[in-house]
Amino acid sequence: MKFGIGQPVRRDEDLRLVTGQGRYTDDIVLPRMTHAFVLRSPLAHARIKRIDSATARRVSGVLLVATGDDLSADGLGDVPCLVPLTSRDGKPRHDTPRPVLALRRVRHVGQPVALVIAETLSAARDAAEKIEVDYEPLPAVTAAKDAIAVGAPQLFDHISGNIVFDWDNDTGDAKAAEAAFAKAAHIVTLDLINNRLVVNSMEPRNAIADHDPTSGRSTLYTATQGVHFVRDPLAEAVLKIPKDALRVITPNVGGAFGMKAFIYPEHALVVWASRKLARSVKWQEDRSEGFVSDNQGRDHTTTAQLALDKDGRFLGLRVSILTNLGAYLSPFGCFVPTRSTDLVSGLYDVGAVHINVKGVCTNTVRSAPTAGLADLRRPICWNVSSTRRRASSA
Questions:
Q1: Residue 50 CA to its chain's centroid (Å)
Q2: What gap in Å lies between CA 67 and CA 51, rounded to an integer?
Q3: Does domain 144-198+296-377 have CATH number 3.40.50.11060?
Q4: Which single residue of 35, 262, 272, 382 could bond 331 by disulfide (Cβ 3.0 to 4.6 Å)?
Q5: Strands, E, within 147-257: which ranges?
Q6: Pairing relationship of beta strands 132-137 and 46-52 according to DSSP bridges
Q7: Residue (of 197, 207, 225, 379) closest to 299 by Cα position
């Protein structure tokens, strides 16, 4: 290549991948590797009254059985949300404490409840089936509009009405938009539903951890979209170890689409277990696990109103978004519904634009940035020659 600027760079990985020579996390085999299985909640909302793992611990080949109390006793922290946000009342958004393994309560189907480490995956699965969990079912709510209704089940005692944040783009824009609507000759209203989706990448999530007792350093092999997005909060916020005590390696990745960009409880579980056992630990989810544990996308409803003068010129735009965050804030849980509003007016000279976003927690899997983010940022398109309403997906 004589000149780099403006010239394409030839891909050199294609032949290796299409001929099956890629190396993915599941291809890695380490000496004395053990296998992890995560027992998950079958209920969307329940109190955990008791966990009895005595029989599971006696299963042949089982090396470790852990619950939320064990991790808490070892000082592990919660999986954090990394994005700060200030609501329109000037107060910071609420936290939704998300333990690595459930403590006292589960808030969605698929939430991790217990961890089993064994010599084989079959043994780990067999042992997990012998763990007795006494659940007290609680009322559940899965739709954001239902979660904010009077009398709806409350997910967290400190979050009134299940509203994690109530955000405005700018209070000055609210006043200007109100003035624009007050003098409008025409007002057009558009309701949009952006449904929830499961990413379902070709390669499910996975994690393999190894620990070197001599150096005190752990290595995590996992399919990610950026090792530093995983390493830093995993080490500092969850495992409570220095960043340089954890190395994260990402081999080839079989699809990610935003879902593999951030940390998950299973990352912490395998690293913690490998440090505990001084052996390598492998966890590989199956397709069914992914549907109830991977970060999901979208799930919000939008009402948009456009104010026009008598000649059809735009005067102002009001947008109200209700977003379903799931049971817990994902690491970037409040990023998508608020930052996607930057382009809501597209290239039009709209005048005053006021946007309000309410983030609501429900008894569902967390929502997070996915490849569908582009769909959230497409401008609303209006047919102003008539009062018929339409939305553009082009």
A1: 28
A2: 8
A3: no
A4: 262
A5: 163-168, 186-197, 206-212, 217-221, 246-249
A6: antiparallel
A7: 197
Rg (CA), the chain: 24
For the question of whether the overall pTM of this predicted structure is more than 0.70, the answer is yes
Cα–Cα distance, 253 to 305 (Å, whole number): 42
In this prediction, residues 78-106 reach a mean pLDDT of: 96
Q: What is the mean pLDDT of residues 43-71?
A: 98
Please choose, from the candidates 192, 179, 164, the residue with its C-alpha nearest in 3D space to the C-alpha of residue 321. Answer: 192
The reply to whether 22-138+199-293 and 144-198+296-377 are identical in fold is: no
Kind and range of the H or E element at 307?
A: strand 297-308
CA-wise closest residue to 45 among 171, 135, 158, 172: 135
Q: Give the span between the Cα atoms of 271 and 269, in whole angstroms.
A: 6
DSSP conformation class of 386: S
The length of the chain is 394
Task: Quick: pLDDT tens for 162-188.
Answer: 999 999 987 668 899 999 999 999 999
Phi/psi for 246 (5° steps) reads: -135, 125
Distance CA 216, CA 233 (A): 18
Cα separations in angstroms, 145 against 59, 211, 231, 337:
46, 46, 36, 16
Q: Return the C-alpha torsion angle 27, 40, 280, 263, nearest 10.
A: 80
Nearest one of 255, 223, 331, 265 to 110, comparing CA atoms:
265
Distance, in Å, from the CA atom of 93 to the CA atom of 77, rounded to the nearest integer, reads 19
> Where in the chain are the domains?
22-138+199-293, 144-198+296-377
Q: Is 117 helix (H, G, I), strand (E, B) or coil?
A: strand
* Cα separation, 54 vs 108, whole angstroms: 25
Question: 306 near 243, Cβ under 8 Å?
Answer: no
Distance of CA 221 to the CA centre of its chain: 20
Distance of alpha carbon 166 from alpha carbon 158, whole angstroms: 15
User: What is the Cα–Cα distance from 24 to 93, expressed in whole angstroms?
Assistant: 38
CATH class of 22-138+199-293: alpha beta
Tens of pLDDT along 106-160?
999 999 999 999 999 999 999 999 999 999 999 999 999 999 999 999 999 999 9
Tell whether the model's pLDDT for residue 302 goes beyond 70. yes
Mean pLDDT value across the chain: 91
